[in-house]
Structures are given as C-alpha cells and as structure tokens.
Specification:
Elements (H helix, E strand, L loop, with lengths): L23 H15 L4 E3 L9 E4 L7 E11 L3 E7 L7 E7 L1 E7 L5 E7 H14 L10 H18 L1
Antiparallel strand pairs: 1-2, 2-3, 3-6, 4-5, 6-7
Length: 163
C-alpha cells in the first residue's frame, strides 16, 4: 500500500460500502495500521491507499488502533473546537479546522462485529477527518477559500521542486 496524494482523483470519490466483512478485512486493517505507523499518522482511510471502500483506521497515542468499517456518524455535539489538522495525502499542509467536540459513531470492526463509540477531543476529530475521506472530502475543503488557495499554492511549489 502507498499513500495517494492530492493530485490523485480517487481521493475525491465517494467510497463504496463493504457488503460482506470477511477475513480479508483483517489483513487490510493490519496493512492500513502498518502504513499509518510507518508514516507516523493518526488516521488513514481506504481511499488514501486506492481502496475505495468504507474503511479507515485511527491510532491516537495512549489508545489502541481502531478499525471502522461502514461507519455512520449518528450524533455530533453543538459545541465545536478549532484545531490544526494535516493529512498524509497532503504532506506539509496544515490548517485550523472547526469540528464538533463530541461525536457518536456506529461501525463494524475488522472481524465484522458492530460497535457504537462516543468520542471526544482528538479521537472525535480524527474519526471525522477519516470519515470525510470516505465521502471524498479533504480537510482543506473545510477551511476558508483564501487559506485553501495558499495551501494549494504551497503544495504545488513543493511538488514542482520534487520533479
């Protein structure tokens, strides 16, 4: 697995539901966690590695890696929090994003077991960020246009230096 970057159009596609959670998803989840650790990230979604399926993993320090398959955000708090976000698919780009402080999510784990989780703080933020990836949304879509333009220009300069 390799992480796709901003110029890859599949990051803008909506991921498809997983019809049957079989043993192959244990391996996919393990691979996602491996890439996440290798890249020193805290979240990674299927579309970021070219897998247009509704799966993502999160790993917040002090917690275990968590796998979310076919997640649904079923509640969000009215209270919001502004916090700086980055993305493995947009290396070097960071911006403050406003998101709900508390969420409730329903999903299945890699073994096909359903669960409901109430999350707050950084865990809630990472879940929402990764959920956005399943919808074809990037964190830069959630910031003002002027800031997005500056981030995209900086990213383009970095890309041109690599070529």
């Amino acid at each position: 697995m390799r992480i796709l970057t901003l110029e890859n159009e599949s990051l803008r596609q909506k991921a498809l539901p997983i019809a049957r959670i079989g043993p192959e998803y244990i391996k996919i989840a393990e691979d996602l966690v491996t890439v996440l650790h290798k890249e020193d990230g805290i979240g990674l979604a299927g579309p970021q590695v070219g897998l247009l399926k509704r799966i993502f993993v999160v790993y917040v320090r002090g917690d275990k890696p968590r796998v979310f398959i076919n997640p649904s955000i079923i509640e969000t708090s009215q209270d919001t929090m502004k916090f700086e976000e980055g993305c493995l698919s947009i290396p070097g780009a960071y911006a403050y994003v406003v998101r709900p402080k508390v969420i409730k999510v329903q999903a299945w784990d890699e073994r096909g077991r359903p669960f409901t989780l109430e999350a707050s703080g950084i865990l809630a933020r990472v879940i929402l960020h990764e959920y956005d990836h399943l919808e074809g949304i990037l964190f830069i879509d959630r910031i003002p246009e002027d800031k997005r333009s500056r981030i995209l220009a900086k990213y383009e300069r970095l890309l041109s230096k690599k070529k």
